[in-house]
Please model this.
Amino acid sequence: MKALALLAVVAVLGSAVPVMAQQKDAMAGAPVVRRQINWRAERSELMPQLGLTMNDPYFKNILVGVGYNYHATGWLSFGANVGYAFGIKTSLTEDIESEKSGVEYENEDGELAKGPSFAMPATHVGLLADAHVGIVPLYGKMLLMGEKALAYDFHLTGGFGLVQVLWNSDLPSSFDAVDEFRTGPVFGGGVRLFVDDAVAIGIDVLDYFVTMHVVAEKDPDRAFTECRERPLDCYRVPDEMDWTHNVVAMVSFAIFMPGELTYEE
Model:
């Protein structure tokens, strides 16, 4: 009887092995189910920003601002930026002002005299603002130090911008120049790196392309000898404005809301 029972167990196990193998083979061809993380879709992005203008001959501009984006989908967003720039004279401006300040000249009595200080008749930007549309053509994940996986994306933006154009504040009130606001297109792009579910670091470059005065021109109706006492009298604001690229490189610290990620199959 024991022998018959043992043979029955062996027969049952032997018949089960092919069935298990067939089930395993059938599962091997099934698709892998993965959940995609929605890093941007239906989330708001608030971004404190710090920036610096590039390729400015007369004034560098340090920008402090804030930006907002609403990501309607994973690849489409709508947003705005606003900030204020503080103008700092470049070495070129300082050299010109030093060279033209206190220039000695011969006055009407035939005596040597020194002219007044010279302020460079040039502009810098103040308020910068824009409304834009953004797209994300490329995104993925990267390994940091070969250990931690971080999500990233490359994005492009385009829209409409507002630029406040300010003349050198050291210019005397007698110089005929008026600060003004100018408008024009804005375009650029950047990269965003998620360091947490709700926190990202961004680097962006934006170009505020507007018509504006950059620097005064020499007055063709005034001879240089007439301006030896006051060199600034030989300069005037040009009649025409030039299309000017105001390129700003910015670093941002973005906070996403809601803070929890969502997933889709």
Summary: Residues 2-28 form the longest helix (27 residues).
